[in-house]
Amino acid sequence: MDDFEWSGELLHRAKQVFGIQDFRFCQKGVCNANMDGRDVVCVMPTGGGKSLTYQLPALLTPGTTVVISPLVSLITDQILHLREAGVEAVMLTGGTKKEESREVFNRLGKKKHAREQEEKEIKLCYVTPERIAKSKTFMSLMEKMALDGRLARIVIDEAHCVSSLGHDFRPDYKKLSILRQLFPSVPILALSATCPPSVLKDLLKILKLRPVVDGTSAPLDGGTVYFSSPLYRANLHYSVLPKPPSAAGAIQAMADYILAHHRGESGIVYCLSKKDTQTVADGIAQASKGKIRTGVYHADVEDAEKEGIHRRWRTGQVQVVCATIAFGLGIDKGDVRFVLHHSMSKSLDGFYQESGRAGRDGKHADCVLYYRGQDATRLSSLICGEVEGQEKCMFMLRFAQNLTDCRKLLFARYFSASSELATAAWEDPSAPASLAPCGHCDNCLRPPSTVSRKDVTFQAWQILRVVEEVCREGGRVTVGMLADLARGLGGGAFAVSGGGKGKRRKSEKSELDLEPLGGKVDLSKDDVEFLTIQLILDRYLAEDYHQTAYAVNVYLSPGLRAARLTRLPLALVRSGQREGPKVEGVFLLPLPRKARVSMGAKGKQAKVDDSWVPERKGKIRASKYPPEDVYGDEEEEDDGDVELVEPDSEETDIVEGDDWQLDMRGKRRLPSTNGTGGTGRQAKRRKGNGSGGKDANVYENSDMDDIEGVTAVWEDGQEVYVISP
């Protein structure tokens, strides 16, 4: 398609202004459709170069292109790049100073003959959707520009945000439906990296765009031109690593990974909540002994403060940004060599987009998810009220739980089932067998000797019977509690509610007899949690949500398929000689005991120093078990701040782990996992004087993060929690 009058100038400007020698994916087609004045929907992978598809036509077209973008961080990033390239670009956000806003309004309102000779025309104006939805002044300005022929086009970046079915729905995006009504002759370009058919249909309806036509054979009139590009990026190496049970252990594992594989390189660590970002940033800085400079990015800060830290990250003064989803959409920093996920994303769409911040320069980059079963419960408590939230969460869990299938193919199956891009969207023109395994993700590189595939029907039967028995007695059980009960820990005791509400609610203890239930489950705690999540995914178990004043509690109950297994007699299930459902589990094998020594960067044995473990405080209920699966004060993000965290020079620990891990280059290595040096997290209660005073209750090696009234201290080489009576 080189027969357009602008084709030569298009490539010339791409080379001259942006230093681009060749177009990628469908960039050229989208630019041509833009130049032709067509409405366009473009779905292109994260890092595929969507911005060029409107920035380049903006330089060749008279007038101003208005770009609607969801995040201030994204807008700031784009403005920095454009100004460095000499392009006249401005932004109007909540953080824009009044004087600057007034100047932008004056410049946009001037016709060509009214501008001073040395004053250049603004080619790109970036705004947030809130500006469109709530600023009558700006909308009046846009109408004036359109009447004068100076509104070249409207670009809606991250267009999936208009749909409540999308993974990043923004209410103010839905109000963009007014644009077609006010500007019927101004072309609209909608861009996204993930747009399933349901979202695409909703998007077209909300934005009042005509039905899509294929961009490779679009007629000269009618229809919204639709382009899609391959979603697979061969330079990204995906891995899911076991997440240590303690908060300190998880942070230490990430610090070790960064030092071992990406020392001095730029990266992002995504966290689920604003509170997590600060904890993780502080922890990584301290655990690395000051070798990793971290920043924090989330929603609770003024826009003006974001720009400064964003520049520091881009210039290398900050190596790692610990962030919520507020940081990322469209961030264009080419040399991001790794993206770590401290917790799972709420959907596989979100995980694909967030991990796609890595390797935008086409060079190798690592995308690592740290995962353990209890993270699933935490995530479920956050998305229980979202449209299709549970279904999206299940897809994400299946991805995390899978230890055998190629990550590329897992993505392909998901997007093939949920997107009009279909399997063809994963085709790589340079690879004839594009749907073959990638050969470089963790599952492709995992040695068979490190994985155990076995029939766990009996263990599944035991777990289901425990849940049935607890529910029959009027009790409630979480994933973490179930792992202990099924393994016979804690004497089989669990709490049973005796009726009433609030302070009148009575709680009694009940003892669980495991003998009729098949005895103790012969699996480690991590494996029981892993199997429990598999049973949830396979509908043998169900999650029940209980709203409290401060949180959503997630408990387990028998699922739709539970009776198919539990109706079988114990003797028959134990013998294995039966007909009926079969449950197969795939587990990571534990390390040999003599090999359980953590390796730090460059393969050297790490020096252990646990002095950095952070102090934690919170409220604990009168129960034998910590509230592992009860979460409150978790928030979604859409805008945020970064602040520089000064590194701590104290020495920190690198501790032992339980599972073999693979680095991104296929080498089998020892992980850095458990922050306490032990494999279990069962609380041991004793009496002591500690910081809690006389006869304070002290729990050793328990995972009681963020619990009010609990202080974590380091005593005799162990992490203990002192609970004031």
UniProtKB/TrEMBL annotation:
Coiled coil: none annotated. The keyword Metal-binding applies. Residues 253-404 form the Helicase C-terminal domain. One of its GO terms (cellular component) is chromosome. SUPFAM superfamilies: P-loop containing nucleoside triphosphate hydrolases (SSF52540). Its EC number is 5.6.2.4. Keywords: ATP-binding, DNA-binding, Helicase, Hydrolase, Isomerase, Metal-binding, Nucleotide-binding, Nucleus. SMART domains: DEXDc (SM00487), HELICc (SM00490). Residues 630-661 have a biased composition (Acidic residues). Pfam families: DEAD, Helicase_C, RecQ_Zn_bind. Its main location: nucleus. Residues 623-704 are annotated as: Disordered. PROSITE patterns: DEAH_ATP_HELICASE (PS00690), HELICASE_ATP_BIND_1 (PS51192), HELICASE_CTER (PS51194). It is found in: Nucleus. It catalyses: Couples ATP hydrolysis with the unwinding of duplex DNA by translocating in the 3'-5' direction; ATP + H2O = ADP + phosphate + H(+). One of its GO terms (molecular function) is four-way junction helicase activity. Residues 31-213 form the Helicase ATP-binding domain. Belongs to the helicase family. RecQ subfamily. This is ATP-dependent DNA helicase. It comes from Dacryopinax primogenitus (strain DJM 731).
